[in-house]
Amino acid sequence: MSILRRDPVSLGWVIFPTDRPFRKEHAHEDDERDSPEQCPFCPGHEAETLPEISAYRPPGSGKDSAGWRVRTVPNKYALLRIEGKFDRRGEGLYDMMNAVGAHEVLIETPDHDARFHEYPVTTIEEIMRMARDRVKDLTLDTRFRYIQVFRNHRRRAGETMTHPTSQIIALPVVPRWVREEINQARDHYLQKERCIFCDIINQDTRGPRMICENEAFVALAPYASRFPYECWIYPKDHAHLFQSINDSGLTALADIMKTVFSALHAVLDDPAYNMIIHQAPAQPEKFYHDVRARVNDFYHWHIEVLPRVVRVSGFEYGTGFYVNPVLPETAAADYRGKIQILDESTGRLKAID
Ligand SMILES: [Zn+2]
Ligand SMILES: [Zn+2]
Ligand SMILES: [Zn+2]
Questions:
Q1: What's the structural domain count of the chain?
Q2: Checking CA distances to 180, which of 159, 195, 295, 348 falls within 20 to 30 Å?
Q3: Quick one: three-class SS letters along the chain?
Q4: 282: domain range?
């Protein structure tokens, strides 16, 4: 029999059909890889991208030349453009505006064929440091109300280039999913004077839906996971902004990401997935503060890892219901089965195959 669960933050419903077998071979459909020779993101091809915005490179190596470890450039095929005015206007009863924003590509490594779960922890740390610093910088542009960091892995998750990248998009509006999370979190706070995400962390850490934890972060399979093997990574201490993470936080974040992505690979054999960072909007004071509830108190930044291993059908699009053939308790147990503590002196978790 199927069961229905409701997510306490989005209030979205998820169907878990317990009689439908989960087939993980879906994960590898639609894949094709482009060659390093034609790749604008490979070292030696720096002139094929727009001029770089930021890069980590050894002293002495020049801008837009090889030698970098992590490099951010404007997206040549940007969804939004940084120049211009919004020119908000009405068209009869409709509202419109120009697509002003920013769209950057964070090239994660010079290695065309590298996989996220195989990166050294220090590489993941540099990628997240770059993401933090780009988000901080984009927040200074007061035209932008929300900065979205995301990563697509494999074609069926929306990847367009083989070379490993993340992307950063600055938006002139707060997008719908973030608005819904904020609204629910605010309602919860107004009723209980507690952050709903902190409540989830307190209830589920060390429970059947926990995947792993370290000193500063915990990875959980959400109670109403929309996707098989969905995983959310939360800072244990309440914080509303990813961009406020400090250097020791970055080290701990890289550590848990290495564990989660290694275990994800071990469970599903390098599946397609999306990774997104959700944080409070860039200018919350305009929209989300009032005397009773400040976004700083009720919103909690997090990373969502969303494996794309089942097809989304018209039913999902039509209703907002999701259908998930894997219960999160099963998913978390599968993840945990691939994780063991190897080094007791540092307490660091490592994943095993
Ligand atoms: Zn490449
Ligand atoms: Zn919280
Ligand atoms: Zn979220």
A1: 1
A2: 159
A3: CEEEEECCCCCCEEEEECCCCCCHHHHHCCCCCCCHHHCCCCCCCHHHCCCCCEEECCCCCCCCCCCCCEEEEECCCCCCECCCCCCCEEECCEEECCCECEEEEEECCCCCCCCHHHCCHHHHHHHHHHHHHHHHHHHCCCCCCEEEEEEEECHHHCCCCCCCEEEEEEECCCCHHHHHHHHHHHHHHHHHCCCHHHHHHHHHCCCCCEEEECCCEEEECCCCCCCCCCEEEEECCCCCCHHHCCHHHHHHHHHHHHHHHHHHHHHHCCCCEEEEEECCCCCHHHHCCCCCCCHHHHCCCEEEEEECCCCCCHHHHHHCCEECCCCHHHHHHHHHHCEEEEECCCCEEEECC
A4: 2-351
